[in-house]
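Suppose you are handed a protein chain with no further information: no name, no annotation, nothing but its sequence. What can you learn? This example shows the usual starting point.
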Amino acid sequence: MFPKRPAATLVATLLCGSLAAPLAGCTSGSSSSSIVSSSAASSSETKPAQTAPPADGTYNIDVTTDSSMFRSETCTLTVKDGVYTATISLPGEGFSRLYFGSAQDAEKATEGVYDYRLNDEGKYTFDIPVRALDTELPIAAFGQRRNTWYDHTIVFHTPTQKAAENAADAASSSSAQANGSATNAQDSA
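A reasonable first move is to predict its three-dimensional structure. Written in structure tokens, the prediction is:
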């Protein structure tokens, strides 16, 4: 008789006003139904965003993967004429090749296999094309230790700011902090 998601039911009950409302879809108020439907949508699979494609430029972006063993440390997305290219750095040296598709297909592939290069910090870095943003994509990663391809998924998230703007924001923030420290030191003297 009790719902399997008591916390969700409690929130829906508080928003809609009765225990029957969550089961009925909370149709009594337009603002309440939009809150319930937006939280339900966020718990589902990653869906493509309904935003305009990013303009040409370079952006720092977030990347989500299905495993803590295969994750991105940093990722920069370059957009030129509507074509996306990601420069993704991994935190370790375990994976030396990437392939968009399954591990089984990667074993037979003669094209579309991306080898790493070392970036300035000595991290394994890959320059790879990105077919879609905010969409779960199958990717195979070659593990050097066991000489084996592994299946993973990856999501490249829509950028929110250009990398140059991010760098400028970080520089101004650091400058403001440094100036604040100098001011505080003068005030205490």
